[in-house]
Amino acid sequence: MGIIVNITTNEINEKSKKIFAEDDIVIFFNKEELIDNLTRNTFTTTHASCYRKMKDVEKKMKKKSIEYYYYNENKLNNLGNKYRFNDERKPNFNTLYFKLNDYNPNIVSYYTYNDYIRKTEDYKYDFIIYLFRHFGLKRISWSYDIENETIRTNSRSANFGIDAAGINVDISTEEEDSNESHVLGFRKFSNTGAIDFFNTCSRRVFWYTYCAKNIEHVVREILEKSDKYFYEYYENNRDIQVNLDNRLNGGMDIEYTFRQNDSCKLAINKMIKISNKYGRFGFSMNNESVQNNTFNKKYSILFYKTTELEKSTLENIIWNSELYTDYINMETVNKRYKELTTEDTSDLRKRLRELQDMIAREEQTLNML
């Protein structure tokens, strides 16, 4: 008995020295609570059996890529200022956290499941807007279907009073409900020009005298100006790269679908099962309502026409001497701008005549009354 107790205690103490390594999915267990629950003398479970259960829990978590830490309160308080857990400096014990992979080198953010799903989606949406506005973004609209499968883990402890310390047994139940909802929204953007688009697009405008720039280089320069969005995020999101490539090859209206990461669901479901089976040993997940939202969010991304962007971009070049380069023919720029302006003026005059005719007809109708 004593040998197993020492092995269990020593192993937990040794593992508690593990340094936090910015894993994708993490959970922190209370070291003192685990040692107490796994080593105290009970008539229902042998120490050897408790040790085997600990190893079984560790194996199950590893299988779902859940990284576990055996810490005490002091170590939990001193993880470092770099980390955020649901926007707080300190994580909670027995809480499953998912890392927001925004590749921020200064702040590493973790969230519980519901917040993680929302933060991941919001960040990608904001990233797409920030990047695609440099390439002529006009309008983005979205819609998605949600199937809400809410799993509530309700646990309570029963004290059987077997010894002075008592035996705490977790009794858990699960409740599920589901529904669907459909959400629509859109956002418009003004035409401020898109020199990055003309620097990289496959269709070269004739006022340029050089080949297209490397898109990765241009994107890196764009993102280096931001303290929120990072090139590594772009580099690790193939779907964003594909959609940007479509844009550079003349795409005006791009459909994009955001798909949820199923591995997060699997991790949550695994921790619920572990909590229900091994919660009395300290391997439990905090009581919470977990929404297993299943949805495919669809974006419809619309860009300005090339001629519309060209005029705004030429205005920027004409008025901003910092945009002058040896690779842009300013004589051709001025000539092209005059052509586009003349076309616009002709269209405006035509529209003005139509409006004047409409006003004249309405005034004539009023005079007849």
Write the layout of secondary structure elements.
Layout: H1 2-15, E1 25-30, H2 31-39, H3 47-63, E2 67-71, H4 73-77, E3 83-85, E4 96-99, E5 108-111, H5 113-132, E6 137-147, E7 150-159, E8 168-177, E9 180-188, H6 195-200, H7 215-224, H8 231-235, H9 238-248, E10 253-259, H10 262-278, E11 289-291, E12 294-303, H11 306-319, H12 330-368
Parallel strand pairs: 1-2, 3-5
Antiparallel strand pairs: 1-4, 4-5, 6-9, 6-12, 7-8, 7-11, 10-12
Helix pairs in contact: 1-2, 3-10, 11-12
Discrete helix count: 12
Average pLDDT works out at 81
Order of adjacent strands in the largest pleated sheet: 2-1-4-5-3
Q: Can you summarize the main beta sheet? A: 5 strands, mixed
Low-confidence stretches: 150-179
N→C terminal distance: 106 Å
| Fraction in beta strands | 15-25%
